[in-house]
Design brief:
There is one protein chain. The protein has helices spanning 3-51, 160-195, 197-212, 227-277, 281-308, 321-330, 332-336, 357-373, 405-408, 419-423, 434-444, 469-483; strands spanning 53-59, 65-71, 83-91, 94-104, 125-131, 134-145, 148-158, 317-320, 342-348, 352-355, 380-388, 391-398, 448-454, 458-466. By secondary structure, it is α+β, with helices and mostly antiparallel strands. Helix 1 (3-51) packs antiparallel against helix 2, helix 6 crosses helix 8 and helix 8 (357-373) packs antiparallel against helix 11.
Length: 484
């Protein structure tokens, strides 16, 4: 069953349940109200009858005195629609064996009590009886003389109109419930269809994407920014990410193919030469060099893939960033080799962070290798480590060829290499993965990496990491001593 039908059923079922409950309440309240009105009229009539009763004392043959009931207001016994009986149930000696009917209204043709069971009550009593196939409401109210019960007044009135009214109300309620249910079902289907229309558009968009592989599809939402509006925005945002990731994947596959084709072509060519002309030391070295290059690329790709899957967990410990900077500076001579470059230290301040020594050193060596690669002979490369507010900062600045604004937006993407960098590559160059690895390592240290550069004026890479609390306290003490 579709969501549209389920929503319609839930909505209409809820409305029907509410209508049924309200109908039962209305019928019940109507019945109780009418009965209360009838009871009040009957009780007032019984009170009027009792008020018109006079108890006289009549001597008997044995010398005792018997109470005699005298009714002063006979007009009540002729009222239409109300039956009245006055029964004597007691004498001077106590309860009578058989109650005696003293007075009977004109609309009663027999001497049968209106409620025989109620002739023994000692207080006001309400009952509903079937009298001559007619349902009547009966009130039995005792009357006394000198605090002694003498008899009971019974007053009755038919409640047949009440039952007819209730039956009519039930029929009307059932008809209204059925009509309301039909309207509720139709309206709920319309509301559900209208409410789910954006969801249908999303479904159609997803289906078109699956059929046409068009990731540029977007939804247009003209309504308010409600749940469906946010759903449309989330869908569009998801499609933007998918389109971007798909483009990155396509470029990634293309770059991998391109990067692997070059060393494989060189290896195959040298192997063919050796197969044709025999063993050659230079060809063997070329094969070995290209195989090492492929091995580095595969290892870097494996590291990034494992990092993406969360398989590489770095154990972070208190680490002195300035010590790593000094270590990298001392290895600069090996990296520079025969190049005429000057590597120097700038600011070197204590900066302790929570980090992994080897991974941080890998980032710094990678950035230093890039600076050496793109700095012409006679240039300068400067390494610095210092603190700034609550951050530890590492910068490496070169006087090289610089990076364009457009390339700065992509240099941390995998396999991205600017065109000019491809023209200056040698056999030891990487495949454009170094900065991607550096970005991942910095992020794993809860840090940030950024670049600022200008063509022909050099480049500066800036790394920032949160300082450990002890280092923050030391800086606070230094600032306070300077202020004093």
């Amino acid at each position: 069953m579709t969501i549209r039908k389920r929503l319609a059923l839930w909505y209409s079922g809820l409305i029907i349940a509410v209508i049924i409950i309200l109908s039962l309440v209305v019928v019940g309240i109507s019945r109780v109200t009418i009965l209360n009105t009838i009871d009040q009229v009957l009780q007032e009539t019984a009170s009027d009858v009792i008020d018109g009763i006079v108890i006289a004392s009549t001597p008997s043959g044995d010398g005792s005195v018997e109470p005699t009931v005298i009714l002063e207001r006979n007009e009540l016994f002729g009222a239409a629609g109300i039956a009245i009986q006055v029964w004597q149930t007691h004498n001077s000696n106590g309860p009578l064996d058989e109650p005696v009917l003293l007075l009977n209204s004109v609309n009663i043709s027999n001497t049968i009590p209106l409620d025989e069971d109620a002739l023994k009550v000692t207080e006001l009593f309400y009952s509903t009886r079937q009298i001559s196939h007619v349902t009547e409401r009966v009130i039995s109210q005792p009357f006394n003389s000198n605090k002694q019960q003498i008899g009971i007044v019974q007053v009755a009135s038919t409640i047949q109109p009440v039952q007819h009214a209730n039956d009519a109300l039930i029929v009307i309620t059932i008809i209204a419930a059925v009509i309301s249910a039909i309207i509720a079902i139709i309206s709920s289907l319309w509301i559900a269809d209208r409410a789910l229309r954006p969801v249908n558009r999303i479904t159609e968009a997803a289906a078109s994407i699956a059929a046409a592989e068009d990731l540029s599809t977007r939804l247009t939402w003209e309504g308010p920014v409600d749940e469906l509006g946010r759903l449309s925005n989330v869908f569009n945002h998801m499609m933007e990410r998918l389109e971007r990731l798909f483009a990155v994947q396509q470029r990634f596959v293309g770059d991998v193919s391109h990067e692997l084709r070059t060393p494989l072509t060189s290896i195959m060519g040298n192997l063919e030469l050796m197969a044709r002309y025999g063993y050659d030391e230079e060809s063997l070295q070329a094969v070995h060099r290209e195989a090492e290059r492929m091995s580095r690329m595969v290892n870097d790709l494996l590291m990034l893939a494992r990092a993406d899957n969360g398989e590489i967990l770095m154990e972070l410990n208190p680490t002195d960033l300035e010590s790593i900077t000094l270590d990298v500076y001392q290895q600069a001579d090996v990296l520079v080799k025969k190049r005429n470059l000057h590597v120097k230290l700038g600011r070197l301040e204590p900066a302790r962070i929570d980090g992994h020594y080897d991974r941080l050193k890998q980032v710094m060596l990678n950035l230093l290798s890039n600076a050496i690669k793109f700095t012409e002979d006679g240039g300068t490369i400067t390494l610095s480590t210092y603190t700034e507010d609550d951050l530890a900062v590492f910068t490496i600045t070169d006087t090289g060829i610089g990076i364009s604004k457009q390339d700065q937006q992509h240099i941390f993407d995998r396999f991205y290499q600017a065109d000019y960098s491809r023209t200056q590559r040698d056999e030891n160059d990487g495949a454009g993965l170094g900065l991607s690895i550096a970005w991942w390592i910095v992020k794993a240290h809860h840090g940030e990496i950024s670049v600022s550069s200008e063509i022909g004026k050099g480049t500066t890479f800036r790394l920032t990491f949160p300082l450990l609390p002890a280092t923050k306290q030391m800086r606070a003490l230094e600032r306070s001593s300077v202020q004093v």
